[in-house]
Amino acid sequence: MIEPERVEAQNTTLLAGHEADLEAVAACLERRGIDAEVVIGALQAFSAAAPSWALGTGGTRFGRFPTGGEPRTLEEKLEDVAAINAVTGATRSVSLHVPWDLPRDPGAIRERAASLGLAIDAMNSNTFQDNPETTQDGKVSFKHGSFANPDPAVREAAVAHNTAVIDLGVELGSRAITIWLADGINHPGQADLRRQFERVLEGLREVYAHLPPDWELYTEHKPFEPAFYATVNADWGSSLLLAQGLGPQAKCLVDLGHHLPNANIEQIVARLAMVDRLGGFHFNDSKYGDDDLTVGSIDPYQLFLIVRELVAYGGGRMPELAYMIDQSCNVKDPLEDIAQSTVALQHAVGQALLVDGTALAVAQDEGDAAMGEAILQRAFRFDVGPLAAEARRRNGAAIDPVGALRGVGYRRARIAERGAAAVATGL
Amino acid sequence: MIEPERVEAQNTTLLAGHEADLEAVAACLERRGIDAEVVIGALQAFSAAAPSWALGTGGTRFGRFPTGGEPRTLEEKLEDVAAINAVTGATRSVSLHVPWDLPRDPGAIRERAASLGLAIDAMNSNTFQDNPETTQDGKVSFKHGSFANPDPAVREAAVAHNTAVIDLGVELGSRAITIWLADGINHPGQADLRRQFERVLEGLREVYAHLPPDWELYTEHKPFEPAFYATVNADWGSSLLLAQGLGPQAKCLVDLGHHLPNANIEQIVARLAMVDRLGGFHFNDSKYGDDDLTVGSIDPYQLFLIVRELVAYGGGRMPELAYMIDQSCNVKDPLEDIAQSTVALQHAVGQALLVDGTALAVAQDEGDAAMGEAILQRAFRFDVGPLAAEARRRNGAAIDPVGALRGVGYRRARIAERGAAAVATGL
Amino acid sequence: MIEPERVEAQNTTLLAGHEADLEAVAACLERRGIDAEVVIGALQAFSAAAPSWALGTGGTRFGRFPTGGEPRTLEEKLEDVAAINAVTGATRSVSLHVPWDLPRDPGAIRERAASLGLAIDAMNSNTFQDNPETTQDGKVSFKHGSFANPDPAVREAAVAHNTAVIDLGVELGSRAITIWLADGINHPGQADLRRQFERVLEGLREVYAHLPPDWELYTEHKPFEPAFYATVNADWGSSLLLAQGLGPQAKCLVDLGHHLPNANIEQIVARLAMVDRLGGFHFNDSKYGDDDLTVGSIDPYQLFLIVRELVAYGGGRMPELAYMIDQSCNVKDPLEDIAQSTVALQHAVGQALLVDGTALAVAQDEGDAAMGEAILQRAFRFDVGPLAAEARRRNGAAIDPVGALRGVGYRRARIAERGAAAVATGL
Amino acid sequence: MIEPERVEAQNTTLLAGHEADLEAVAACLERRGIDAEVVIGALQAFSAAAPSWALGTGGTRFGRFPTGGEPRTLEEKLEDVAAINAVTGATRSVSLHVPWDLPRDPGAIRERAASLGLAIDAMNSNTFQDNPETTQDGKVSFKHGSFANPDPAVREAAVAHNTAVIDLGVELGSRAITIWLADGINHPGQADLRRQFERVLEGLREVYAHLPPDWELYTEHKPFEPAFYATVNADWGSSLLLAQGLGPQAKCLVDLGHHLPNANIEQIVARLAMVDRLGGFHFNDSKYGDDDLTVGSIDPYQLFLIVRELVAYGGGRMPELAYMIDQSCNVKDPLEDIAQSTVALQHAVGQALLVDGTALAVAQDEGDAAMGEAILQRAFRFDVGPLAAEARRRNGAAIDPVGALRGVGYRRARIAERGAAAVATGL
């Protein structure tokens, strides 16, 4: 546990510089007619869930190089998320992945999370692997698909797993299930593209029917990996067709790494928002495919443009969606990596809030492309770092989250406690 | 004009070899339990429209190198299409582009086309350029968009142009309008992504309201070019939203070059077919963007897979959709290029018809990926050339279309008639 | 002409705010141990050439929407560049394109440029179009390539044109020639890939032999457009092979838009720098292909990473290379667009100079990916706007370049002078 | 073991049909002036190595679904390769991967391979995982790179491993080592791009110095995965720089899946061949990234164009390079998958040999793009299936390789022998 006073101690040496920076930045904003306090307040309110499966070192099919001290149990995962939240103040929930996170006593987990200041975010089901719990001890296999499988017994297993995840989520206090399906094919001819989609929709309807009235179901599209020729829920158009085929509690979740090269993701976000089918986000960044890199680490301007669409959808503030950071921390300490992602999100939210919407609308109405672009860039180029740091500080967290994690020796202590060879479940 | 007897004369020297090849191929098919006559018949029935704007040499922003003898009038364009049809027997209609093809006397054009054996296919409107006819002699401009323009006067001009194109099409005997919009932006902030879409939908609704009851309206999506940051109708999801927002006479048209890198086009085709919103095709091939190359010249297997989805949608035969070849003939003689594209389509249709659907369904139900793939490949690897040649021959056309065009000296005669410097309208 | 006092007048109302911002920013940097004066000085020293062909409105094959008041002559182009320089203070040279810019009296042009405070940067030849001057009044054509053409007469014309451009450049005071070739093919089989390369190298050797001893020759690669299947100088590997085959005065020029999707351009820059074959840059930004958008407008972090590689190559400062802005201004006023690009470059240079190289090296040696990344991001996130503005101001230019262009009514005056229908040569 | 007579028995029922097809095809070729026997002979001579690591089911980071009966030892791997060769007659060598394939008694393995009719192809080292044998029982780690690692001890371990692989290869009768490095970074700033390259070159020089005089060393480039921001040997340009920096025994190996989207691979092949640095191939196919799918299963025309460049390089025949099939068999039986890949290669080689090189050269010299393309397509569209089948039959293998594997019950027998849970080493 990272107690508030230890974080505060880490802040001490940085405080004077931070306050000077903050004052300078606030004065700059004041000259632009912007109240820094409003931005700081909005940043304090923002939070993105941590994924339980990214607390251990991630890997590729070529290998994995563990960090040491990785969480061995769901309880230890909660502790790690609490540690991230202790330094960011913006990681106030955790998203679980079943069966990787299958608690024996859901009530106890819920209480433990609450005691750590954490809520349980959207639940995630897993039909891309064979696990005793999901494939009935090997009686069926998801090798050739789950919901899209030609074998009805497999499809039933997929439905049963998802409804079980919902039931578990209810006990944990979650309010949503995110369904990412690996269903797809590697070879032309391997399956009928249309029948695959119809089966998936049919199966999801059974899951949807099981949804409590205050829950939402998110369909998450992805063009490829692990399927390398055709994926059933490959793009936002397919995801939307699924949501339309299910009902009003079904929405689409956008993972920033699940797009073809050159896709305009902010426009996809605007489209789904327009038809009120935007449910949530898996934030990360990527250069090639679903690289699952640190949020904002490859293209921070794109992140800004996406968040600005969110703020536009929210009428000037971040709308209440299911925000989650979804990355694979292959070479960094996972906790540091998620903290860096959270900070990057805070920057993007802060920048998006600085956009002068009124002036932008005028420029757009006048076809003044140079000015429209300049208005966005002016917000993006502004250094919101001190505002984000202040929001963290006021939330009891760290001016410098990674520095604080190192300063308190969190990883070192975990290696001592959990062992250098401890390996977490996940990807 | 290329009279049938001149084509027949071109076939003479090839006939013996062709017949031997055909006999061999038919015998091979018979050993597989397939009646070559059925395939030949289906190929005889197939036709794809020629685009009036690709009869001259195409170009890029970097330049254009005219061929000589290009058609100077719509009448001459019809003659060129008739020449292509004379050698392919599968180019029995032409798709016009207004105002590039704005006939003074539509009735005369309709008659002239009929006398050449040509029907008028889908009409194409043009709001990506300022033309006196469409932008009211310079009173408005499409520089900042047509339907998506913030200026209502421009939007009205866009509607007026499209309804005028429909009216013209009615006189010409057309039954559909294809609307490809350049609307989009080059710079983040230049316009509001959502408002742009809403305006486009609003404008298209006015056009749709003008549609005769036996007409269809096709929305054609494209991710980029000429807009380089965000295009309003960028992908099949957007195109589908437009069609859904219009009504049952609205369908989506797929141009094979209008996709992001690595897109699975055959799956997009299957999706649109599934929801009965697949209206037509602009056939071409590409390696990088909207390269508008000869059909099947870069990835003939992809073409085969797309056509197979069509045959599946058509219940074992090519469904009645608006098929058109849409290419830019930059370095080949345009007529030869379109003829080669037509032949490539004939090959793909022939191969698709050879797929053993029953065996494929069995393999797919058994999750037998190796066999499913092998069944498709067996059809693709078969040389349907002699079948396509025979279909052409029976339609009064050429065994070797390009050879026939050269043999009768069509281009040479056109240069003599129209001049070496004649340049056609178009891209 | 935009006289210094008119720019100063534009600065007046912004001055107080600018000075406050500058003071705040300098104090922030001081807290980080960085002297703002050093950065400002480096920014004052930086300049990038303007391309003579982007002073008019750009277009695509689908159309072009002129701005009005475009320069009709080379003299007017020089005036426009001087106007850009008047507001940016960092556009102190112009790059010409022959035969679009073929002065009758080179000496007079050189003098005129000098009187406007402009130098003549790298010369650009043009063998991607047929022009009377280059293709000998139609005796030859570059339709099927220039240096790569199978016809020796065409290859000779290409050599002759390039040597003529060098001769002209010598008169104008230039010191380099940039050779971008459209040579390539649209269709597999159209040409022999290897022979094409060998011919290009052979032709370039003749051009290279004509090079004055103090000149450099830059080969500029591009994967596609206008060739859509294979381009001879398609990638940096090919460009390097050409440079290696020519000699030490041959270097490679990198256009930021001339790469396949997802290419790591900063690594390419590092590679060419490593072998001392990095000659120059064509700066722009793009999302899909060679979109030629405003520098830094799509991915400013990538621009920063590229410039940082330059600073690393320069041993802590920008190396002396041939920097040019190369864009196509389709929807913005071209002068405003180039000014915005210049500002974006100033930002990137400023940010790159803020990188703590010593700390970075330590982090890299320790395999501390989180810290290495954080050090770069810290520099990138800093708002160097006031530093760049101050550098411009000290160079006699504008705090707000676009605002100043508008404030002095430059375009309005040009339309009055040159006419609304004046259209510049170029793309 | 699949004895020749069992294969022959499988051929029996297909023989009559095959002979009729073959006769028909040969007659068609005769009409084109081509001797089918020459093609069959060339196909008999062709062989591509099987990779030892693809004999078990492949997977992704999301999971792996074993086939059952996978080889547990190197000896069993050799048996599986022999089985593939029994049905294809074109898999006469195997490529090993160390330390996955670390024989205790190399001499015995060499003998066993020889007794199965197999040679040992290029050796593959592995520095992308930590293995007790390569990372000295955990004393060092390749987490942050091998040759590119800032830690000299790690670099030494990388050199030591590679020289050990060469030593082992000498004992096994191999003649080459293929070095694919995962070295690269996930995060901008994680390492110095230039220093990484220099260290890799430095390390490879030590390995190169260890090379026996009759050996070759192949550098294999790949743009991404497992590194997701920058890979040291990312492209053919980098690979060529490495080979140039090593010496004449160093060549570049091209894996068909190791390219950015839209790359023209056949041109890369032509470039490396031109400078005599083309060493070998890892054949597979892909749609999105390094998908490692069945050869020719996504884009068979591209495969044909690549093989045609090889035949051009070989002066009309396949040159003697290190050909290997490198795929990941995730959903098919690996042996069937490799057999299908081998057949696809035979098709491509057969088609490439049918290209009329003389006519092609004429068309190219005349700038006749339509004819140049048509000549290639004519060869590609020809059904060389019966020729490939005959080549296999004459080599004692199967007319229908997959059918034969199934017919003899190879997998069933292996599951009985090795168990349903046997899992092979590899990816």
Automatic annotation (TrEMBL), chains A, B, C, D:
Q: Which PANTHER family match?
A: L-RHAMNOSE ISOMERASE
What UniProt keywords are attached to this protein's entry? Isomerase, Manganese, Metal-binding
GO MF entries: isomerase activity; metal ion binding
Q: Where is the Xylose isomerase-like TIM barrel domain?
A: 107-292
One Pfam family, short name: AP_endonuc_2
Alphabetized InterPro entries for the sequence: L-rhamnose_isomerase, Xyl_isomerase-like_sf, Xyl_isomerase-like_TIM-brl
The protein here is known as Sugar isomerase
